[in-house]
Amino acid sequence: MKLILFLLISCGAVAFAQQSEYGMPQSEQGSPVEYQQNTNSADFSDYQSNYKLRQDRKLGAGVSVGGALGGLGGFVELNIEDVNSTIAGFGSGPGYQTFAIAWKQSFEGEYFTPYTTLGYAHWWKTGSTAQVNRSALLKNFLSDRERAKNDFGLDLVTGSLGMQYNQLSGDLAGSSFYIELGGLLSAQNTKLMPTGAVGALYYF
After folding, report:
1. Is 101:119 a contact under the CB 8 Å cutoff?
2. Which of 19, 60, 145, 187 could form an S-S bond across to 23 if both were Cys, CB 3.0 to 4.6 Å?
3. 155-197 pLDDT, tens per residue?
4. 1-25 pLDDT per residue, tens
5. 84 with 104, same domain?
6. 3-class SS at 20?
7. CA-to-CA distance for 131 and 129, rounded, in angstroms?
């Protein structure tokens, strides 16, 4: 009887010691598994607004069709701050090439955000008269004599109002698409031509 009682007491003491060693709560530090899960749950590529994205990613590169760069162009955008940025690019069209710079003001939002631009573009001849005559924009700005001579350089004041889609989360965070409507004003003859553009870019 004494031996049985001694064994029961011994087993209880061992069980209590094991519970104290392995079963105590870890409320202050947490287990390594929980810490790893909490660390992995934080996605640092997620942004709450387009301003947060522009603050973190200062440089964008993209392509455009239409607008100040003509038929097809490539450009870079430097985010000076969350609101303002500068754009510079080169493009081409039937019988001409282009260079454009602009100041862009973005408005705060999430996925769809409006913006405005104001800038300058220079278009110059690079092709034949037949190619120049294919461009509706050049027909508006150049006289018949200028197109026949095929030696021109246009200085244009540019402006636009656009809507931009911003991908704020996931693996594609930083990618963007836009559509804009604007105008080209010739400094030589003050002719105004409405224009539009679509494009895509990625912020690094």
Report:
1. yes
2. 19
3. 999 999 999 999 999 999 999 999 999 999 999 889 999 999 9
4. 444 444 444 444 444 444 444 444 4
5. yes
6. helix
7. 5
Specify whether 76 is located in the same domain as 11: no
* Structural domain harbouring 9: 2-41
Give pTM, 2 decimals.
0.75
Q: With the C-alpha atoms ordered 197, 73, 105, 174, is the resulting torsion angle positive or negative?
A: positive
Do both 70 and 107 map to the same domain?
yes
- The Cα 95–Cα 171 span in angstroms is 40
Q: Same structural domain for residues 55 and 95? A: yes
The CATH number linked to 83 is 2.40.160.20
> How far from the centroid of its chain's Cα atoms is residue 79's Cα?
10
The reply to whether 74 and 26 lie within a common domain is no
Distance CA 31, CA 190 (A): 72
Task: Give the 3-state secondary structure of residue 190.
Answer: coil
